[in-house]
Amino acid sequence: MRPSLLALALTLPLALLALAQALRHTPSPPWQKADNASPFLRLQDVKIENHQEGSLRWQARARKALVHPQSLKAQLMDMEISVPQEGLLLRAREGLHDLQEGTLTTKGGVSIAAKGQGVRLQTSSLSIRPGGTAQASSEVDIRGQGFRIQGRGFLREGPVLKVLRDVKAVFY
Questions:
Q1: Using 50, 70 and 90 to split pLDDT, how confident is the model at 38?
Q2: What is the Cα–Cα distance from 24 to 27, expressed in whole angstroms?
Q3: Taking Cα atoms as reference points, which of 160, 158, 134, 139 lies closest to residue 149?
Q4: Residue 17 pLDDT > 80, yes or no?
Q5: What global pTM score does this model have?
Q6: Which listed residue, of 76, 82, 87, 131, carries a Cα 20 to 30 Å from 33's Cα?
Q7: 72-101: average pLDDT
Q8: Residue 76: exposed, middle, or buried by beta-carbon count in 10 A (0-12, 13-18, 19+)?
């Protein structure tokens, strides 16, 4: 019996973690000096989906991913994360996902679009912690229908997003 694509998509992240854990305990070869970079897994055109109760909860894509088994971190290039039920799409040139702590740090042309609300947020770097708390210390530009808010840094906890410093708001 052939496994379904859904079953493969759900087991891929677990398989990567299991492989990373196995490699984490693999001793370094004798010719590898202590100052050399740790070994990593290189993946191309990665797509991971999270399904809950039969529907797609979120989907992550990256053009390239480097998984570092020693530290359980995945470095992502040209990445995007979509949350279809909430109409959210995050894009960034680079991301670092700490698989152990569940954090995601992105940098380089970070944009978040809330499609149903017509709002777009742009910044140069962003950190997301478990539970959905997001923050940035760099400049932020938020645009929507009839408004634009600029400033330096933001913090999002729950449904509230606060621009932290040098706030400039224009309504039209």
A1: low
A2: 8
A3: 139
A4: no
A5: 0.69
A6: 76
A7: 88
A8: buried
Number of C-beta neighbours around residue 123 at 10 A: 23
Supply φ then ψ for residue 5, to 5 degrees: -65, -35
**Residues 154 and 164 sit within 8 Å (Cβ to Cβ):** yes
Mean pLDDT, rounded, for 51-61: 86
Scan for tokens 């992105």, then name that residue: 106
Q: Which two tokens stand for residue 58?
A: 């979120």
What are the residue ranges spanned by the domains of the chain? 5-25+45-171
- Summarize the confidence of residues 57-73 as an average pLDDT: 86
Q: In what order do the strands lie in the sheet with 119-128?
A: 41-52, 55-68, 73-83, 88-98, 103-114, 119-128, 134-144, 147-157, 160-171
- Tell the burial category of 20 from Cβ atoms under 10 Å away from its Cβ (0-12, 13-18, 19+): buried
Contact 57, 51 (CB under 8 A): yes
At 89-147, the pLDDT tens digits run: 999 999 998 888 888 899 898 999 988 778 899 999 999 888 778 899 899 999 998 99
